[in-house]
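Final report, closing paragraph on structural work. Over the funding period we assembled a curated collection of sequence-structure pairs, and we close with a single example.
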Amino acid sequence: MMKSPSSFKPLPECILAFFYLLLFSTPLLGAQFEENVSTADYLFAEGIIRSVSPEEQRITLKQKKQPSISFSVDENTIFEGFYKITELQIRQKIKIWYRPEQKHNRALKILKPLELGC
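Its predicted structure, as stored:
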């Protein structure tokens, strides 16, 4: 049995529903971090860990051909490739997405690549 034309939703309601879904899905798309890219929302750095202080929740990174830079870690920092700051060691290679703030650089995401070896 075919539906009568009066049972179909009007076009404006469908368009409104589409934009409503688009509005709430946009923040999820914006939360992705791209490697080797700095934006207005975050900066990107990669290098070798120079120091780690779990007590102060700080990491200092030695960048290639750039000065060392320190980062603060908080409960909102995303860890990928490890679970806690205590798992990081000096001379490990990491990638960090961060936001400069008045007193420090706040780490948004820290990626520790998989270590390959025999």
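The chain has one helix and six strands. Residues 25-30 have pLDDT under 50 and may be disordered. We thank the funder for supporting this effort.
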